[in-house]
Amino acid sequence: MQFPIWHWAIVLLIIGVPVFFAVRSASKSPQNPGELVGFGGWLMLLAIGQCLAPFRTLADLYSSSEGYRQLMPLPNGPLAVCGEIVLSLGFTLLQLIVLVAMLRRSPRFKQLFLYQWIAIPFVFALDAVWSSAILGAPISQVLAGEALVAPIAAFVLTGIWVAYVYKSVRVRNTFGGAATREAAAW
After folding, report:
1. pLDDT at 185 over 60
2. For residue 149, what are the domain limits?
3. CA 129, CA 124: separation in Å to the nearest integer?
4. Which of 3, 25, 79, 98 is deepest in the core (most CB within 10 A)?
5. How many structural domains are present in the chain?
6. pTM (2 decimals)?
């Protein structure tokens, strides 16, 4: 399968343009860094994405239901399906914990967001190994087709957001210091 040039152009636009503007806006010094507090600017995009993330994980779980039905008659099929469902629900729970920490403006949000990023390849690898071991199929068969595309894309895009979370003045002001005390008192 060949990937046409216009697909690469679309990928460049989807990834490159936001990265360009994030880098450009990060290089500008704000007039008063103390004013950068709350869910605004790039942090608003991150907040929207974090709010939608559990729904996306659950939608992926739902879209896998046809594949689960095909696995059920196989020996150990129900065990493989249950394992995948438990992993997906566990990852959804982690996403919800990160979301609550973000909405409460907890200082632990940055660390939890990093853990969520690390969990992406961990959950994917654990799922592949689990399915391979339980079904007795080689890993290459479990990872057939375009199975790697979505997790790699999610890992790369979330990695960009992790870099933003650890470099942003707005994030530092929103999830630490006086802003956190004000939000806790509210």
Report:
1. no
2. 46-185
3. 9
4. 98
5. 1
6. 0.72
